[in-house]
Amino acid sequence: MNKQDFNEGLLGFLDASPTPFHATNNMSMMFENAGFIKLNEVDKWELEAGQKYYVTRNDSSIIAFTYPKTDLKYTMVGVHTDSPNLKLKPNSVIKEHGAVKFGVESYGGLLLNPWFDRDLSLAGRVSYLDSNDRLQSALINVQKPIAVIPSLAIHLDDKANKDRTVNKQTDICPILTTNEDFDFDEFIKWQLSNNGINDVKELYANELSFYDTQKAAFVGLRDDFIASARLDNLLSCYTGMLSICSINADKPMLFIASDHEEVGSESTSGAGGSFLENTLHRMFDDYEEYMQMIRASLMISADNAHAIHPNYPSKHDTNHAPYINKGAVIKVNANQRYASNSTTISKFMNTASSLHEPLQNFVTRSDMGCGSTIGPITATRIGIDTIDVGLPTWAMHSIREIAGSDDAHSLYKILIGLRA
């Protein structure tokens, strides 16, 4: 796949995936189109050599794998589906001061200030009871801008450009309407009806998040950049998904996209949960064979990396400062916040070199804290050799992030070429 087609598909995937639920659903459809067979965790699996399979958990995490059976050296790609956002509280509607607004929680370590003065919509999963007293779930995506968080005018806050802070409880509530007759349940039923779901006896719980309706786009004099919400980490989701869809079924490869990385991964559908381990044991039910596969395989933990910011260069170690459009980044940390080691780095570098694809290194400044990824979590839980890589990004965890238009396609080619 050439770079232009790759990036055009990326923009569409970003716009169609406002929540982990939608991202997982879109990846499921992609796998179906690529000939992968859907599995269900509650069924007994009868895997056949030479086939390709996928399975989801919680509608927000997904694993796809080839099954050559005789070749135990798997290339695995691990990413995450979630991004920082504003999530609705259960009793979210607040009517006061002539307006209706929503109470929200901050999910993950998001930059709050960029959420002001944006055209916001709402998406996620809704659970309900149908007329046959069966519990059902459905995805909704309002798409239309329905809310805004207006800034406080500078006339009322003369320190706004000096030391502005944001109170997560009071300052960041999206405002929906001035019509105080607004009924939240009727609003949700209307959204379900728009999706052809009219058999709703009673609404139960929901997991809904706000998102910016501005579309993903090329930016820059020569389309140098891709600007979008949720690049962290849908950029890696798309790259890993296309990689496994682009190989033959006789090559051993596995792709896992986990939820809840931004809040620590400790959930049934997070990398700290059992989803990957359970799946691998069902693929290789003989323990000796399972352990042979684990120790022969390589996990590539793909998450975004902090590109050096031209306006804030002092925030990087000069010798380990990745640039936009200069290639994928190998992430290293002496304290194991990243799982890369000399052996896994060498395997990755060897493939990139053979393909003439550029690579960069990132080590955080020694006087600054270092974030982490699913890499160390997966390496610890599974015991698989792991490398942490990423795509250089500006404005990470903002409502709109920036990445290079060259880098994801370069990583895609490396992932296809890797052998454990």
Automatic annotation (TrEMBL):
<keyword id="KW-0862">Zinc</keyword>
<dbReference type="Pfam" id="PF02127">
    <property type="entry name" value="Peptidase_M18"/>
</dbReference>
<keyword id="KW-0482">Metalloprotease</keyword>
<keyword id="KW-0378">Hydrolase</keyword>
<keyword id="KW-0645">Protease</keyword>
<comment type="similarity">
    <text>Belongs to the peptidase M18 family.</text>
</comment>
<keyword id="KW-0479">Metal-binding</keyword>
<dbReference type="GO" id="GO:0005737">
    <property type="term" value="C:cytoplasm"/>
</dbReference>
<dbReference type="GO" id="GO:0008270">
    <property type="term" value="F:zinc ion binding"/>
</dbReference>
<dbReference type="InterPro" id="IPR023358">
    <property type="entry name" value="Peptidase_M18_dom2"/>
</dbReference>
<dbReference type="InterPro" id="IPR001948">
    <property type="entry name" value="Peptidase_M18"/>
</dbReference>
<protein>
    <recommendedName>
        <fullName>M18 family aminopeptidase</fullName>
        <ecNumber>3.4.11.-</ecNumber>
    </recommendedName>
</protein>
<dbReference type="GO" id="GO:0008237">
    <property type="term" value="F:metallopeptidase activity"/>
</dbReference>
<dbReference type="GO" id="GO:0004177">
    <property type="term" value="F:aminopeptidase activity"/>
</dbReference>
<dbReference type="GO" id="GO:0006508">
    <property type="term" value="P:proteolysis"/>
</dbReference>
<keyword id="KW-0031">Aminopeptidase</keyword>
